[in-house]
Specification:
The chain is an alpha+beta fold. The chain folds into two domains: 34 residues; 105 residues, Alpha-Beta Plaits. The chain has a three-stranded mixed sheet with strand order 1-2-3, sandwiched between helices.
């Protein structure tokens, strides 16, 4: 009698755990399918065409989930979000993305980060540029602040 109860409890727990895991996997897959790259367009003389092309290039990598990028005349800052299962290889992915971007944009100094804070900082800067709430002087100031933070991380 006690053996049957323990067996039933064990089977019940396995079923509950298995159904919980499969539901979570479906949610992760659904989130990543509908992503799109936000292109930054500005009216000001601050062209973000290099950053937009870099975003498209980075999103072709299968490990990346999302990307934010901002550029000046000579520099390009990129922050990427990596798929959950690829987080163990952050440095390797970061190096690969950086080398690909350096080959594609040899006229720009490229800095790449997988840090969440850098991602959020670049996202805020992109939003400022999109709303045309910044000029070249403000852009340089914010850009240099983020660049300093990225260098501290490495």
């Amino acid at each position: 009698m006690k053996f049957k109860i323990n067996t039933c409890l064990l089977v019940g727990m396995v079923i509950i755990l298995a159904s919980g895991c499969t539901e979570n996997q479906n949610q992760v897959g659904d989130d990543s399918e509908g992503l799109s790259i936000s292109q930054v367009h500005t009216i000001n003389p601050i062209s973000q065409s290099v950053a937009n092309r870099a975003k498209v290039k980075v999103m072709t990598e299968e490990e990346t989930w999302d990307v934010k990028a901002v550029n000046t005349d000579k520099e390009l800052l990129v922050a990427i979000k990596v798929d959950q299962f690829d987080r163990f290889r952050l440095k390797k992915i970061e190096k690969k993305v950086k080398s690909d971007l350096e080959k594609s944009f040899p006229d720009h100094k490229v800095l790449v980060s997988t840090d969440q804070k850098m991602y959020l900082e670049l996202e805020q800067l992109e939003q400022k540029l999109q709303k045309d709430n910044t000029n070249m002087k403000k852009l340089e100031k914010d850009f240099n602040k983020i660049k300093t933070l990225m260098k501290e991380q490495t």
